Amino acid sequence: MTGFGKASAEVQCKRFTVEVKSLNSKQMDLATRVPASLRELEIEVRNRVSARLERGKADLTVTVESLAGAPAQVKLNLASLAAYKEQVSQASAQLGIPEPTEWYSILMRFPDVFITEGNDDINEEVRTALLSATDQAVEQLMAHRRAEGIRLEEFFAPRIAQIGELLKEIEPFEAERVPQIRARIEDGLSKIPAVDYDKGRLEQEMIFYIEKLDVNEERQRLAQHLRYFIETMEGKPGQGKKLGFISQEMGREINTLGSKSNHAEMQRIVVKMKDLLEQIKEQVLNVM
Fold first, then answer.
1. How many CA atoms, within 13 angstroms, populate the side-chain half-sphere of residue 17?
2. DSSP states along 154-166
3. Most CB within 10 Å of its CB: which of 19, 119, 128, 220?
4. Average model confidence (pLDDT) for the chain?
């Protein structure tokens, strides 16, 4: 979801520059900084950007500068300067700190200390120029996102494939695990002297116990999740939330495999799966 775009458009001796950047976020969170002279177009610009970005924490900044030959005049806003100076003097007296010696360098840092006199009317030409610059800046950002998406796809695919290969490695250990568990229980019973037990009941309890340790369903569901992840990734864009949900389900199946395995080699394989899945879940946050 990260990206940056910048574009400009010139009209009526003015240059409108639009900058937009985005970071990861679960929802669409757009902050805008628009000059007061263009404030009436802010909602239209916001809606235009939000519709394209869909998700992410985005910042949009619009600046306006007069070009050479522009019929505009810049003046100091004396009323604002006087108000700022008065407030600084009051703060100095109340806080017991000396007043600044370089008043101009201090006052020039405050906002709205300049007044630009000129044609600030918003007409269709100005609107078209601003929206055109906005669209171009957003398109640059989306190009960054698309490039990032390609890199993420190249990151996810081999790791999903590795989890699938590790899942296949569990099969031979699963085949030998049940006889080992059964032999261990029977061996433990044979070491207890003078114990008489119902072999039929023992058989039933052993079957029940072994069924609780069976991981076939978990293996099948995990394989389905792996396929679904790839299908979703290769489908329509904007599926970051869905990929996150799928990776959570994959984690549940892998955790269950680990808790049921009762086998050192299977648990080693599960640890490898968890490591790969954590890498995937970290990067899924970058998907729109």
1. 8
2. HHHHHHHHHHHHH
3. 19
4. 85
For residue 101, what is the enclosing H or E element?
Answer: none
Residues sharing a CB contact under 8 Å with residue 164, sequence separation 6 or more, in sequence order: 223, 226
Determine the distance from the C-alpha atom of residue 196 to the mean position of all C-alpha atoms in its chain, rounded to a whole number. 63
In a domain, 115, yes or no: no
112 within some domain: no
Q: 35: exposed, middle or buried (C-beta count within 10 Å: 0-12, 13-18, 19+)? A: middle
Domain that holds residue 27: 3-69+122-144
Q: What is the tally of structural domains in the chain?
A: 3
Could you count the other beta carbons within 10 Å of the beta carbon of residue 236? 6
Phi-psi region of 73 (alpha: psi -120 to 50; beta: other; left: phi over 0): beta
At residue 68, the pLDDT reads 65
Residues 58 and 84 both lie in one domain? no
Strands 73-76 and 28-33, bridge-based pairing: unpaired
Assess if residue 113 is contained within a domain.
no
Instruction: Kindly state whether residues 128 and 24 are assigned to the same domain.
Output: yes
Same domain? 153 vs 135: no
Average pLDDT over residues 226-248: 90
pLDDT, one tens digit per residue, over 188-200 is 767 776 666 666 7
